Amino acid sequence: MSRKRPRYGDDNDGDSLPRSSPLGKPRTRDDDFWFEDGNIVLVAGDVEFRLYQVPLIRRSPVFRETLSMPQGDGISIAVPEVKLFDHPSDIRRLLGGIIFGSDLRFVKGDPDFTTLSSLIRMGHKYQVEDVVEAGLEYLRSFYPPRLAHDEGMPDGPPNFSKRDHIGVVNLARLTNSPDLLPVAFLHCCMLDPRELVKGIEREDGTTETLSPDDLATVLIAREELIKADALDCLYILDVNENCCSVEECRETLMEVLTSSIAVQEQRSFSADWREPWRPFLEKIGAVPCEACIEGIEVNEETRLEELCGRWPKIVGLE
Questions:
Q1: pTM as predicted
Q2: What residue spans carry the region label Disordered (predicted)?
Q3: In three state form, how does the secondary structure of the chain look?
Q4: Tens of pLDDT along 222-233?
Q5: Predicted local confidence at residue 23, as pLDDT
């Protein structure tokens, strides 16, 4: 954001002639935030926002400081103009949070990542803390601080894409919110490494990727998930001590092992969150005796609980 003095121009001249952006494109007035009796004009890119100063001053220390700077040259102008170096869509969303409330009620339904990221980033930049907190609270409802072995893989926000979890990691870093990272890292581990490197494209055309350190963390964590999955697959060969048909179950479990590592099944030796064994056994039609199945489930729960307990250390949070 500019720390220079706001620029002023004749308000009447501005209404009769189309003003231009620094790139020479004619400016346009924003459809949602142009109030004819507003007393400040914010310019982002080639879009103008005419607003009232009071809400900006009350809600944002950054705007308060900027708008209190000397107007210079002794020239008295009714409507000052402030140049912002942000994408117009980012400013539009921030103004929605400032003017209409910070609890996301101005966002219809569940926000997509672009909207939520914009609110948190701009709220952080302009120090509108309640906008930031509203966005983080929404994220916390999908990114719990710890993995629970008995609750399955946490679902991400409904309108987020798989790659948007990359951005969640970055928002957690930006706002010093490490409680979001365990599940955000886990979601990133499910991505193809090529998708991780590719990142996500923002509205302004820039690409958002993980930092080198966080990318390394995800790749190392993926190795741990693959290793745990491979061991889980090997443990299935253990026939339960209460088995009533040892040879038959041993043959069945060997068949399960062969099926589980087949390319078309994708059950094991991957970083994906593991599907429980029982439905998989039923799906492939290779079901051992009930004692063996129960033994498999007990071992499965024990190993998953151990993995969840180690997860903060695996991703560098402990």
A1: 0.84
A2: 1-25
A3: CCCCCCECCCHHHHHHCCCECCCCCECEEEEEEECCCCCEEEEECCEEEEECHHHHHHHCHHHHHHHCCCCCCCCCCCCCEEEECCCHHHHHHHHHHHHHCCCCCCCCCCCCHHHHHHHHHHHHHCCCHHHHHHHHHHHHCCCCCCCCCCCCCCCCCCCCCCCHHHHHHHHHHHCCCHHHHHHHHHHHHCCCHHHHHHCEECCCCCEECCCHHHHHHHHHHHHHHHHHHHHHHHHCCCCCCCCCCHHHHHHHHHHHHHHHCCCCCCCCCCCCCCCCHHHHHHHHCCCCCHHHHHHHHHHHHHHHHHHHHHHHHHCCCC
A4: 999 988 888 887
A5: 54
